[in-house]
Amino acid sequence: MPDDDATRLAALYDAHAAPVWRYVVHLTGDRAGADDVVQETLLRAWRTPRIMAQAPESTRSWMFTVARHLVIDDVRSARRRREIGVAEPPETATSDATDALFEAILIEEALAALSADHRAVVIRAYFGALTVAEIADELDIPQGTVKSRLHYGLRALRLALQEKGVTR
Question: Which residues, in sequence order, are CB contacts of 132 under 8 Å at separation 6+?
């Protein structure tokens, strides 16, 4: 940009940027958007030779008109029509429960493949969070039997899950 253009653009900015910015904020209520409109208005003035050739004080009405047209174009734009304003940004994305549902069904089917004795011990230990002693008291069996059924029940559960395609 020649020095003469730079001087004229600086004069345009000094003379008109603040009033145009206030005008756009008055129209839109959007301070950040007003900065963009003022920038685009000044860019258009710089690209229009007749405006750059005029004295900076005689171009204010032209700049207000350009700024108003930019605001109207933005309001009419497809981007604006498709956007929905919200008071607060949405929460972070959450995954749906589909995978958890399929896992629950898979585990339920694998547990159904166990014998009733093994299933009772595994369910109480892992889903009921009971200790070996509590399971033994509840089922009225020795603690060693609980440990044995838990060991063999988990082996059978692992095998049933592997048969359904679940791998480590």
Answer: 125, 143, 146, 147, 150
Distance CA 157, CA 121 (A): 12
| Angle formed at CA 42 by CA 39 and CA 43, multiple of 5 degrees | 85
Question: Which of these CATH numbers, 1.10.10.10, 3.40.50.720, 1.10.10.60, 3.30.300.30, describes 98-163?
Answer: 1.10.10.10
Q: Which amino acid is at 61?
A: S
- Measure the CA angle with vertex 154, ends 140 and 135; round to 5°: 20
What is the model's pLDDT at position 56? 61
pLDDT in tens, 58-115: 688 888 899 999 988 888 876 666 667 777 777 766 777 888 888 888 989 999 999 9
CATH 3.20.20.300, domain 3-82, yes or no: no
Q: How far apart are CA 149 and CA 78, in angstroms?
A: 66
Model pTM above 0.70: no
Nearest to 109 by CA among 162, 161, 166, 150: 161
For CATH 1.10.10.10, list the domain ranges present in the chain.
98-163
